[in-house]
Design goal:
single chain, 900 residues, mainly beta, six-stranded antiparallel beta sheet, 65 strands, rod-shaped
């Protein structure tokens, strides 16, 4: 049978095995051995159920003994069908219960000749064989039809479907006819999957099954001893070309049957392989095997079926990972690129074909036209794949003007977040580059290493170069890169830092008074600014500084002239600024004075309790800072605004290219060549700092210099404190003295003798002292400049150096005593007096006296000098000053007896 159909007009052939067996019990059962008898024979008769005459006895017909054994009293004979009866069925004909009631059938008796050694002398003399015979038994031959079957079928289990399409658990019982397989596609109707590097014994795939009728296949049985019937299998690759889909290569070229006739191994159509060599190229290929069932003794083919084999195995390769040099975080798309030379060395030459040969770029790109991103990891943690990642670099990547180097014009296109793909080489259109680009969002925030205070993250991307045909296998490769925040190096102008060293504490002092400030009216005697017809200056003190003054550009040893000289490795979309460090401000152990202070959203404004809106309205020139006030928050603000930092930084493209480590034609910051950061305490008006600002006088505020490389990486590159210097202190004593028992009292000029010292060690007083020299001549101007006012001596709390002597029961002067009482009837008052008039014209005042007046006019003058100690409170622009134990000497009157 071929493909289930008998060959037309074919002659029916019968074959029989020579290994049929039948056993007989022997008597006696003990002591009889094989050599006690000779080769048995069958006597056969053709009998009927109605006996009319003695039937002819046939010797060794229709059955013929081939061999025999004796074991344990059992005689077993191996027999075959006599060749004269091969095409005759040894069975029953007729029907005992039919019309003729005649049934014809075969019977046989086994005759065992006695061995000569066991014959009696008479039997020997007679010269005839002596037999021991069995009873006659009816014999019946079964005729079955053999067929080629799948060895994996369990014939004791159910089989479904029609013959030729019968299946069991998805396996075809009789495999396939040729037309079915040649019309099948890849991975369809596959019967056997075999590792490409292991030979396949085709004999293990087939067996013989049989049925009792030629066209009845409802009940299969396995004929496991089919070789006994002279049946054998023969195998060959199906001869016709087997082309699948649009593949141009014959699947039959991927297999070869070895010289033993049954071992199948993988093969490659264009490579000669030895019997023990294998090719990954065969993986996924599906040769068809022609399996034939033959009657070898008579040279007849019984059946032919077709088996599809699929070679399996891991055809994919993983080639060595590529690690790019570190890249710098920016606000643009960050990318790495392999150029033609590296493509050859790190990709093409790493891919191995059979025999270990590397791949050419032409071969590679003819096979691997697509890339699949398998996984992206950041610092070892998987980032979920995104549909907005692209492997089409030709479409989604802008290479910039300079095709062989970075020029700053490179960019991801079409709003992609990541691009990884091949790019045609601009220098050679037959070559390719590879680009891996990620936008700032994909890169995200870089990891902080607290041990060395650096920021960096390592990215790994696993990709697969896809073999669309499935012929050569996919290739996997991992790419690595580390994106870092660059180290910023600074040089310092030490004179602006505490202890003369860069970093730590940056001192901010009031703007130094210049005579240009004195453009108004100064009265003599002094009249406080802000009062009717008071003294007036052109400008009053301000507290501000340029934080960049604390730094120098190392090549010039001068303050950075632009942003490119100050900060390295930034792009035009980066932002550089000094800010108030809100995080450190929360450390109230270090900064208790900052409790309830908050910063603006951009951390450049420091507010008390509630954030507001700072004003920037004044744009005129400001000699204090050597530029206009444009872009700087005005001095005068609402009362809750303490301080602001005003960052004015930029560089034009020329300076950028000159100072940064690349040649990008782009501007930085505000595009103007400047680098300043004005920190300013704010004022309610000319004479008063804001209440919020006053809380910072003499205190430190934490500040950071941050570089916003992008919105995800705002990195502090400097941390320090700004100390707002206390502008003014009250001196420890009044330079003049009182005299006891003076007519109309002893008057001491506060304007000249009650003095202050400013932060710059300059004398400050309401009036210039007599015979003033040097800086003393500016005392009055500075007094107004700092808006000193509301001077109030607490005369009712005046103490003295008079102490009680218990031994003498006497109040007496004692050095070191500061809490004594005034002498009886002595008093101290604040007075306003025009010294060009009599003292009697002086008037008591509650504050801002021109003089202090001491009275002791009751006929009891003091007889010793003593010290008077005063407490004074003073308001000025930047706060309230208080001084206890301000010392004034009281001299005894010249006419006291002890003086004579």
């Amino acid at each position: 049978m071929v493909d289930h159909k008998a060959v037309a007009n074919a002659k029916t052939l019968n074959i029989s095995t020579e290994k049929n067996e039948v056993s007989y019990k022997m008597s006696p059962s003990i002591g009889v051995l094989k050599d006690d008898i000779k080769l048995p024979l069958f006597e056969g008769i053709k009998s009927q159920n109605v006996t009319k005459s003695t039937p002819e006895i046939l010797e060794n017909a229709p059955l013929e003994v081939v061999d025999y054994t004796v074991d344990g009293g059992v005689l077993t004979v191996q027999y075959k069908k006599n060749k004269e009866y091969l095409n005759e069925n040894i069975g029953t004909s007729g029907e005992a219960h039919g019309a003729d009631k005649l049934e014809t059938f075969w019977m046989a008796s086994l005759k065992a000749p006695i061995a000569d050694k066991n014959l009696t002398d008479d039997e020997k003399k007679a010269g005839e064989e002596v037999y021991v015979s069995s009873e006659y038994s009816r014999i019946e031959e079964s005729t079955v039809f053999p067929y080629l079957a799948n060895k994996k079928i369990d014939f004791n289990q159910a089989i479904t479907g029609n013959f030729a399409d019968e299946t069991q658990d998805g396996k075809y019982v009789h495999y396939h006819d040729s037309i079915c397989l040649y019309k099948s596609g890849n991975d369809v109707l596959v019967d056997v999957k075999q590792a490409y590097d292991e030979p396949l014994d085709l004999r293990t795939l087939v067996t013989v099954c049989y049925t009792y009728a030629e066209d009845e296949h409802g009940s299969h049985k396995e004929l496991s001893n089919y070789p006994d019937y002279g049946l054998e299998f023969r195998f060959a690759l199906a001869k016709a070309k087997y082309l699948q889909g649009d593949r141009k290569t014959d699947e039959q070229e991927f297999g070869r049957i070895l010289s033993d006739g049954y071992t199948l191994k993988s093969e490659v159509y264009d490579v000669e392989l030895g019997d023990n060599e294998y090719s990954k190229t065969s993986i996924g290929r599906e040769p068809i095997i022609r399996a034939e069932l033959w009657d070898k003794n008579n040279g007849n083919m019984i059946a032919v079926r077709y088996i599809k084999i699929r070679w399996t195995g891991e055809k994919d390769q993983t080639i060595a990972a590529i690690t790019f040099p570190n890249d710098t975080v920016t606000c643009h798309d960050m990318f790495q690129q392999l150029f033609s030379k590296e493509m050859n060395e790190k990709i093409y030459h790493m891919v191995k074909f059979d025999g270990g040969q590397s791949m050419s770029k032409t071969q590679f790109h003819s096979i691997y036209k697509d890339i699949e991103i398998l996984e992206l990891r950041k610092d070892g943690k998987k980032i979920e794949l995104s549909t907005n990642w692209s492997t089409n670099a030709e479409k989604d990547w802008e290479e910039g003007a300079n095709k062989v180097g970075k020029d700053g014009g490179e960019a991801i296109k079409n709003t992609r977040d990541l691009v990884f793909g091949f790019l045609q080489d601009a220098e050679d259109n037959t070559s390719f580059n590879l680009v891996w680009a990620m936008n700032p969002k994909t890169v995200g925030t870089l990891a902080y290493n607290a041990a060395n205070k650096t920021y960096a993250s390592t990215f790994e991307i696993d990709v697969k170069y896809v073999d669309g045909t499935g012929l050569n296998g996919d290739i996997k490769q991992t790419f690595k890169q580390t994106i870092v925040v660059p180290a910023q190096k600074f040089a310092y102008q030490g004179t602006f830092w505490k202890n003369g060293k860069g970093e730590g504490v940056f001192n901010v002092n009031p703007i130094v008074y210049t005579t240009a400030n004195d453009g108004g009216t100064q009265k003599d005697p002094h009249v406080y600014p802000g009062t009717p017809d008071g003294c007036e200056l052109k400008d009053y003190s301000h507290i501000e500084a340029d934080l960049v003054n604390g730094f120098v550009y190392e090549p010039t040893k001068e303050k950075p002239a632009n942003l490119a000289q100050f900060i390295q490795y930034i792009r035009e979309c980066a932002e550089v600024k000094f800010i108030f460090d809100e995080t450190r401000m929360k450390d109230l152990t270090t900064y208790p004075h900052l409790k309830d202070f908050v910063t603006s959203d951009d951390q450049t404004q420091l507010w008390y309790k509630t954030k507001g809106t700072a004003k920037d309205e004044v744009v005129s020139d400001n000699s204090n800072i050597g530029r206009t006030d444009a872009g700087i928050n005005d001095y005068k603000q609402s009362n809750d605004l303490a301080a602001t930092i005003n960052n004015l930084m930029g560089a034009d493209a020329t300076e950028n290219k000159k100072n940064l480590p690349w040649n990008y034609d782009e501007k930085l910051g505000n595009s103007v060549n400047e680098c300043s950061s004005i920190i300013r305490l704010h004022e309610k008006d000319d004479l008063n700092g804001t209440d919020a600002a006053l809380k910072l006088i003499g205190k430190e505020v934490p500040v950071q210099l941050v570089v916003a490389y992008n919105e995800f990486n705002v990195i502090p590159v400097q941390e320090f404190e700004v100390h707002f210097i206390n502008p003014l202190t009250i001196d420890g004593s009044i330079s003049d003295n009182f005299v006891d028992a003076e007519i109309d009292g002893s008057f001491l000029s506060v304007a000249k003798n009650f003095t202050f010292t400013d932060w710059n060690n300059k004398p400050v007083a309401a009036a210039v002292a007599d015979k003033a020299t040097g800086d003393e001549v500016y005392a009055h101007a500075l007094y107004d400049y700092y808006a000193v006012r509301e001077v109030k001596f607490l005369t009712d709390k005046t103490t003295t150096s008079l102490a009680w002597n218990a031994a003498t029961n006497t109040y007496e002067h004692k050095e070191g005593t500061t809490d004594g009482k005034l002498p009886t009837n002595a008093s101290l008052k604040m007075m306003n007096w025009d010294e060009s008039t009599d003292k009697s014209t002086a008037k008591p005042v509650d504050a801002d006296p021109t003089h202090l007046a001491y009275f002791n006019n009751h006929g009891t003058p003091v007889n010793v000098d003593y010290n008077m100690f005063l407490t004074v409170n003073v308001n000025y622009k930047w706060g309230v000053l208080s001084k206890d134990n301000l010392k004034v000497i009281v001299k005894k009157a010249a006419g006291t007896p002890s003086a004579k």
